[in-house]
Amino acid sequence: MKYFMDGLLLGFAYVAPIGVQNLFVINSAISDKRMRSLLTALIVIFFDITLAVACFWGIGGLLEKFFLLKMGVYLVGGIAVVKIGHGLLNSEIKEQAAVTEALPIAKVIASACLVTWFNPQALIDGSLLLGAYRASLDSNSALLFIAGVCIASMTWFVSLSNIISTFKHQMSTKILIVINRVCGIIIVFYGLRLIYNFLENAF
Question: Which range of residues forms the domain containing residue 39?
């Protein structure tokens, strides 16, 4: 049980800081109906858990070992994230009685994958953070630990989606627009930083 709790606490510390995934879930909770935003959260959870498991077993080391792979992730991820942020900046928040048109499921899945798996910093940091614990655990303890990390991811994103969905109707349309724009700006900035990292390392 100790190793499960360790994984749970580390899992919350891993996903709680405001990042592209959280902004993606927040925007969906603001723009979509509750069930649709919950579906988006579940899709993000799937990619977050698969990333955590991969990091736990050391996939981030591949980025450090293979320079071209790392550069590809920087460039493709940067462009894709900028595009997502640009879409948020140009989206509209209608009156609270209405809901913005939901993205097609295929686009939600692709976007969730991009903001998770095409985040080289998350791959590297996750590998260092989770990999360090993996090295100190035996097989049974490792399974309990990563199970705690996965439960933390599910709890966090489902709670975040539900909280925003519950209280968004108490916010004015102007506040929702500001939140939407701030999310978009941060995501665009993050994408540009990835592209800058590509240019800095490539040239």
Answer: 2-202
